[in-house]
Design brief:
heterodimer, A: 9 helices, B: mainly alpha
C-alpha cells in the first residue's frame, strides 16, 4: 500500500531516460513569446497578469531590489504553473521533489544574503540582534538568530514540498476511499466524493498560494538585504 | 519516501536550473508593459523665421486696402 501510494512521486524515467527534464520544461510551452506590438489574447492576458503581479510585488523594494524583478516574476510563474499542472490526473508535479525545491530555495536565499553582506554589511549583521535586548541575553539571542537565518532556505524548500505532497496524497487517499465505498454504501461514497471536490478546490488555491508564499518570502529576504 | 532517493536529484536539479534561470527568464524578459496611449507633446524641430515670430498687423485681411 505504501509503494502504491507514493508511486506518483517517483521521478519519472522511461527505460532509463530521464523524462523528468521534459516534464519540468513543459510549462515554458504554455507561455508564448510576445512577438507583436499588439498580441493575441493569450499573450496579452499573460502580460497583464505579469504586470499586475510585478506592480504588487516590487512596490516595496528599493531600486537595488527591483533588479530582481525578472527573477521573482519567473519564480512565481514557474511554481504556479507547475503546481496547477500537477493537479491534472496522473501527472507528475516537479515541486513535490525536495531536490528541486532545495535547488530553488538555497541559491535565491544565498543570493539575497550575500547581496546584503556586500552592500550593507553592518545593517545585515545587525539583523542578528534585535533592538532592546537585555545585555545578559545577547549571546543566546545571537545564536538563535543565526539558526533562524540558516533555517530560512530549508523552511522554504520543505514548506513547498510538504504542502504539495500532502495535498496530492490526500486526494489519492480520499479518491481511493470514495471508489472503494461505492460498492459498500453509496451514500458514504457520495459524501466522500463531495469531500474530494472540496479538496480539489482547496488544492487549486494551495497551488497558487504556495507559489505566492515562496516568492513573497524570497522577496522579503531580499528587502531585508537591499 | 521516493523524494529522498538521491539518485535522481542531480537530473532534477539541473533540469530545474536550466528551466528556471534560463528558459523561463528568456520568455519573460520579452514581455513589455506599455502605458495606455496618451498624446505626447513634442518639441518642434523647425524654428520660425524671424519675420514669422511676430504677427505683423498689416497683413490681416481686413486691414488690406479694400478692393
Amino acid at each position: 500500500m505504501n509503494e502504491n501510494l507514493f508511486s506518483s512521486f517517483i521521478t519519472p524515467t522511461m527505460m532509463g531516460l530521464p523524462i523528468v527534464i521534459l516534464i519540468i520544461m513543459f510549462p515554458t510551452l504554455l507561455f508564448p513569446t510576445p512577438t507583436r506590438l499588439i498580441n493575441n489574447r493569450l499573450v496579452s492576458a499573460q502580460q497583464w497578469l505579469a504586470q499586475l503581479i510585478l506592480k504588487q510585488m516590487m512596490m516595496m523594494h528599493s531600486p537595488k531590489g527591483r533588479t530582481w524583478a525578472l527573477m521573482l516574476i519567473s519564480l512565481i510563474m514557474f511554481i504556479g504553473s507547475t503546481n496547477l499542472l500537477g493537479l491534472l490526473p496522473h501527472s507528475f508535479t516537479p515541486t513535490t521533489q525536495l531536490s528541486m525545491n532545495l535547488g530553488m530555495a538555497i541559491p535565491l536565499w544565498a543570493g539575497a544574503v550575500i547581496t546584503g553582506f556586500r552592500y550593507k554589511t553592518k545593517a545585515s549583521l545587525a539583523h542578528f540582534l534585535p533592538q532592546g535586548t537585555p545585555v545578559p541575553l545577547i549571546p543566546m539571542l545571537v545564536i538563535i538568530e543565526t539558526i533562524s537565518l540558516f533555517i530560512q532556505p530549508m523552511a522554504l524548500a520543505v514548506r513547498l514540498t510538504a504542502n504539495i505532497t500532502a495535498g496530492h496524497l490526500l486526494m489519492h487517499l480520499i479518491g481511493g476511499a470514495a471508489l472503494a465505498l461505492i460498492s459498500i454504501s453509496p451514500t458514504t461514497a457520495l459524501i466522500t466524493f463531495i469531500i474530494l471536490i472540496l479538496l480539489t478546490i482547496l488544492e487549486f488555491a494551495v497551488a497558487l498560494i504556495q507559489a505566492y508564499v515562496f516568492t513573497l518570502l524570497v522577496s522579503l529576504y531580499l528587502h531585508d538585504n537591499t | 519516501m521516493p523524494q529522498l532517493d538521491t539518485s535522481t536529484w542531480l537530473v532534477t536539479i539541473i533540469a530545474m536550473i536550466l528551466m528556471l534561470f534560463i528558459l523561463i527568464q528568456l520568455k519573460f524578459h520579452k514581455y513589455s508593459y506599455p502605458l495606455s496611449p496618451a498624446p505626447k507633446t513634442f518639441k518642434s524641430t523647425s524654428f520660425p523665421t524671424p519675420w514669422e515670430t511676430k504677427w505683423t498687423k498689416i497683413y490681416s485681411p481686413l486691414l488690406l486696402p479694400q478692393q
